[in-house]
Amino acid sequence: MAEQQGERITYVDGTIRVPDHPIIPFIEGDGIGPDIWRATRRVIDAAVAKSYQGRREIVWKEVLAGEKAYAQTGEWLPKETLDALSFYRVGIKGPLTTPVGGGIRSLNVAIRQELDLYACVRPVRYIQGVPSPMREPEKVDMVIFRENTEDVYSGIEWPSGSPEAEKLIRFVNQELGKSIDKTAGIGIKPITPAGSERLIRRAIRYALDHKRRSVTMMHKGNIMKFTEGAFRDWGYQLAAREFPDQVITEEELYRTYHGEVPEGKIVLKDRIADITFQQVLLRPDEFDVIAAPNLNGDYLSDALAAQVGGVGMAPGSNISDTLAVFEATHGTAPKYANLDKVNPSSLILSAIMMLEHLEWVEAAAKVLTALEETIAAKIVTYDLARQMDGATEVKTSEFASAVIERM
Ligand SMILES: NC(=O)C1=CN([C@@H]2O[C@H](COP(=O)(O)OP(=O)(O)OC[C@H]3O[C@@H](n4cnc5c(N)ncnc54)[C@H](OP(=O)(O)O)[C@@H]3O)[C@@H](O)[C@H]2O)C=CC1
Ligand SMILES: O=C(O)CCC(=O)C(=O)O
Ligand SMILES: [Mg+2]
């Protein structure tokens, strides 16, 4: 289909309107990005074709970011890319490289901040047959709602010895009575009521809409009282104000409801971040939707992915009320770039989330069923094959073909 035949996705009165030939921008990504993107695109196109017999088709539009953008335009994140993601409302991306300790700031974070994609939604669900270190991996079914625009993750920091760091240290020491060493590097951790509330509101609404049992706010509020502690407090206040008939506290659950979550209600609770990492392993069925500030959500995403096969099986989306950019949880895994080796399931599962977002549920279900059948047949990429007995190890592209054959 030629690009000009596609149409733009729109919103009318807050409801998404998806034409039969939506134009969807994609960023191929760095490192393993091109391999997993190619595989994902084939799978999605096949599912849409088989589900709608030509009546519907995605009109893909490449937009540039990362190394490819820099090579072609001299810019890492061209304005046209942000404009296209904003104009077309829905996009999908491969991972983009961020150097450690210096160099450019994260382009992934820049996209989230520039488009105000305030919630990073990462479902962690076990697919039968996937190797897992858990005794009962089928109990793992959580959805992380990670705040996506604030926190130390927003990159407000200055290096040790810089005039900015020294100025700030001088101010804090002289004006606020602290004693920071003057050689310190400095990072700032802003967390706002509005940023926390919109994230937690979204998590609560998701839990109610999807008949989940609980939302757990994960924070380190005992130590960072006015950022992460406040995140928790604002969450409870929001629930009391906006969801008084639907949200109960843990105390009410036991005192009033004898441990049984009543129909139509959810429990809002909180856990301190360090113990959360233990409890999600030992008692995964006590966790359902998890709302977290940016950095905690980042750490937790990769940790939980390990329970369901690793980051090769971990999808995600970055969303606002009117925009969505889908991407895997993992990064560019540079040592595997262009080897046609890694698992494309994380991006395929992200694309399933995208199809659900478009309300193309038939195509979404077709991909998921075919992916599950492929894994059940023990046809898997290296990451799962190395943990499975009797697996047939296939390349990224072969895995995509095996999924398509099962549609
Ligand atoms: N949203 C984004 O675009 C993100 C970007 N990044 C960036 O990616 C770069 C590399 O980061 P790094 O910390 O190495 O993390 P990565 O997630 O890129 O890779 C770490 C390890 O995870 C495994 N892995 C990753 N993707 C897959 C896959 N699709 N299939 C199977 N296994 C996979 C590999 O494990 P093994 O070695 O065991 O085979 C790999 O070595 C950095 O520049 C980082 O900033 C990181 C995270 C997110
Ligand atoms: O932007 C990056 O390089 C890292 C991002 C990341 O780890 C994440 O969003 O999970
Ligand atoms: Mg991460």
Explain this structure.
With 407 residues, this protein is α/β, with parallel strands linked by helices. Helix content is 41%, strand content 17%. It contains 14 helices and 17 strands. It has helices spanning 33-52, 67-73, 79-88, 107-114, 163-176, 193-209, 225-242, 250-255, 273-282, 294-307, 345-357, 361-376, 382-385, 396-405, and strands at residues 10-12, 15-17, 23-27, 59-62, 90-93, 119-125, 141-147, 157-158, 186-187, 214-219, 247-249, 266-272, 289-292, 317-319, 324-327, 379-380, 392-393. Helix 8 (250-255) links the parallel strand 11 and strand 12. Helix 1 (33-52) crosses helix 11, helix 9 (273-282) runs parallel beside helix 10 (294-307) and helix 12 packs across helix 14. It is globular. The mean pLDDT is 97. Bound molecules: NADPH dihydro-nicotinamide-adenine-dinucleotide phosphate (NDP), 2-oxoglutaric acid and magnesium ion. Magnesium ion binds next to helix 10. Residues 98, 106, 108-109, 298, 301, 329, 331 line the site of 2-oxoglutaric acid. It catalyses: D-threo-isocitrate + NADP(+) = 2-oxoglutarate + CO2 + NADPH. NADP(+) binds at residues 97, 330-336, 343, 382, 386. Its cofactor is Mg(2+); Mn(2+). It is an enzyme of class 1 (oxidoreductase).
What are the key terms here?
single chain; alpha/beta; Isopropylmalate Dehydrogenase; eleven-stranded mixed sheet; two-stranded antiparallel ribbon; binds 2-oxoglutaric acid; binds magnesium ion; isocitrate dehydrogenase (NADP+) activity; magnesium ion binding
